[in-house]
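Pipeline run #58 for the internal structure catalog. This entry was flagged by the ingest filter as a single-chain record with no existing model, so it goes straight to prediction. Upstream metadata was stripped on purpose; only the residue string is passed forward. Reviewer on rotation: M.T. Logging verbosity set to normal.
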Amino acid sequence: MTAPVVSLAVSLVDVLLIVGKVLLVAHVMLGLGAVLVWAERRVSAGMQDRVGPNRVGWFGLGQSIADLGKFIFKEDVVPGHVHKWMYILAPAITVVPALVTFAVIPYAPGMQIADLDVGLLFVLSIASLGVYGITLGGWASNSKYALLGGVRSSAQMISYEVVLGISTVGVLLSVGSLHLGDIVADQAASGWFLWRQPLAFFLFLTASYAETNRLPFDLPEAETELVAGYHTEYSSMKFALFFLGEYLAMIVSSSLVTTLFLGGWSAFGLERLHWAVGLLIFMAKTLFLLFVYIWIRWTLPRFRYDQLMNICWKWFFPLALGNVLLTAGAEALDLPVLMWVLPIVLVALGFAAAALAQKRDLGPPPELAAAPVGAPVPSSPR
């Protein structure tokens, strides 16, 4: 009688530990999402020479809590023309994949909720489900603007998921494993894939921006064309869930880039001192990438939709395939330098194109050229 009781107690302890990990990570991610909203406002204010939120709390840190209160107490309107259950379900479908995906990402030595041998495959497959929330939200709203935003999102996210997946193949060929812990360990021993797979890093990072619908890839919610795109008909906490889903996807994306290309929790062997050091290293890298997300948003203008698709299928897709072929050749011939051939060629072509464009620049036409110094200013026509 004693052995079954002991085994039951042990199994209950294990279950409680797993539930505790899940709740802790979920609350940390939700809290970080709220901090990101504040950080986006402060960083954008600094870039535009504004003050930003500074009224609620120290440095405006309480602004996100105030926003949450505003969303909670707003009237929860469900328009009469929508498909009700799909309309209500869509925001939750957007948030859940981001929370589930983070379960397999190792954020410190030996620390993750689920240790899967196919961790990378799990991340890519679950993260791709986020498109359903946006598409269903656009379709269920029964509105032309929202439907166009949903259709745009489907085409955009499915297209860039192809690039996202192929760009990881070079990492898999080098490591020989889908286990995220093995990928981090390989980088700790042989160097970050940022240096060993530079083109894959660039393609993966850029495709991540498109996957999270951030500028310059935010065509599904282009306010100049679609009012607010797929969430035009949403308000109150339903809109807040769409908003939160975007920031949670940013956190997962930055964590994945850190794991695959920036060494995860490893840096110069410092992670051997204590697991907490590894956790701090992982957090520092992830927060830097989140800052880059915000930096890019407030720096680059939005692409046109035809440009968005041309970049994906005419440039990124062939480059991703070329990177796979070069990586396979480098692994087969034991010549790591081959993986730098394509990036060097592309950079050289970029400089050559810039030089040719500068030579062909004939300046403004004569009627728009600046008047010489001292020339009389013509009177305005009346």
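catalog note: The two ends are 105 Å apart (CA to CA).
catalog note: The chain has two domains: 29-73, 77-350.
status: ready for reviewer M.T.
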